[in-house]
Automatic annotation (TrEMBL):
NCBIfam families: PRK09352.1. Pfam families: ACP_syn_III, ACP_syn_III_C. Residues 220-308 form the Beta-ketoacyl-[acyl-carrier-protein] synthase III C-terminal domain. PANTHER family: 3-OXOACYL-[ACYL-CARRIER-PROTEIN] SYNTHASE 3 (PTHR34069), BETA-KETOACYL-[ACYL-CARRIER-PROTEIN] SYNTHASE III (PTHR34069:SF2). This is Beta-ketoacyl-ACP synthase 3. One of its GO terms (molecular function) is beta-ketoacyl-acyl-carrier-protein synthase III activity. Residues 107-174 form the Beta-ketoacyl-[acyl-carrier-protein] synthase III N-terminal domain. One of its GO terms (biological process) is secondary metabolite biosynthetic process. Its EC number is 2.3.1.180. Keywords: Acyltransferase, Transferase.
């Protein structure tokens, strides 16, 4: 299938670093317990920044690295479940602040932790169909206001951040996608009038360690590829134990998995976008390498994309 190329990338995060030790002063936990269960050492909280602020900072960085005309962007997708307002969308706010064309299509996608993967899949469909020429896809979340600090299972996990990519169609690149869903699951959710995040951690863990390998094998089948053909696996940063379990089921060494959960925690739709940005900035992704990105979370949902750098 004709692919897409990443021509710009950037990321941002909350303005305050929150260590496990600091969190343990208000949550019934400890640094050692959090590290051993999750792999997280610290996370960022956006005390003085909105979701829109972080989304636009990541996008501005992506534009700088792209060097193209932002007026050419005709599709803007913001993947988030934590918009600042019920309406208008974060995407509309970002289009105005970033100075994009008034003809740009703006859309928020609430896919939770799978959101960025879904956003890139939708962008690919529109770019390769000729319905868009240049897409800006942002994963951005401000989760900290939704955290119940008396609920240890979720309070220790989440952080605030954003990642963005500029995408354009490229017929020389490889692309395949795969998705799965267990509908109406209440293992991870927020109620409308009690917005604190509620999560049944063990059920999410059991889902992830089975659904993620299945999703990866599914996208490989569609692409006619094998696990050995993949250079990097960029999975949603939910829990280090999940990533290690997935690596074991794929029989792949952890050196092929990018991990930054220790510094960010779980940033939901932003996590894969932040990983991509960091890897490109560090020069870890080389031209021609095959990469699988996978998101999984509330829904319950899971999706994977295989692409070439």
């Amino acid at each position: 299938m004709a692919g897409i190329k990443i021509t710009g990338y950037g990321c941002a995060h909350g303005d305050r670093t929150v260590t496990n030790e600091e969190l343990a002063r208000v949550v019934d936990s400890s640094d050692a317990w959090i590290r051993s269960r999750t792999g997280i050492e610290s996370r960022y909280f956006a005390d003085n920044r909105s979701n829109l602020d972080m989304a636009c900072e990541a996008a501005e960085m992506a534009f700088q690295r792209w060097g193209g005309d932002r007026g050419a962007v005709d599709l803007l997708l913001v993947c988030t479940f934590t918009p600042d307002l019920a309406t208008p969308s974060v995407a509309c706010g970002a289009a105005g602040r970033l100075g994009l064309s008034q003809k740009v299509m703006c859309l928020d996608i609430n896919g939770a932790c799978s959101g960025f993967v879904y956003g890139c899949t939708l962008a690919h469909a529109m770019l390769t169909a000729g319905d868009a020429r240049c897409a800006l896809v942002i994963g951005s979340e401000k989760i900290s206001p939704l955290m119940d600090l008396t609920e240890r299972g979720s309070a220790i996990l989440f952080g605030d951040g954003a990642g963005a990519v500029v995408l354009e169609a490229d017929g020389t690149k490889e692309f395949a996608s795969y998705s799965d869903c267990i509908p109406e699951s209440e293992t991870l959710f927020c109620e409308r009038f009690d917005p604190a995040i509620m999560m049944k951690g063990q059920e999410v863990y059991r889902f992830a360690v089975n659904a993620v390998p299945e999703s990866i094998y599914g996208v490989l089948r569609r692409a006619g590829r094998r696990v050995e053909d993949v250079d990097w696996f960029i999975c949603h940063q939910a829990n280090l134990r999940i990533l290690r379990s997935v690596a074991g089921k794929l029989d792949v060494g952890m050196e092929h998995f990018y991990v930054n959960i220790q510094r960010y925690g779980n940033t939901s739709a932003a996590s894969v976008a932040i990983c991509l940005s960091e890897m490109l900035e560090k020069g870890l992704l080389k031209p021609g390498q095959r990469v699988i990105i996978t998101g999984f979370g509330a829904g319950l949902t899971c999706g994977s994309i295989l692409l070439t750098v």
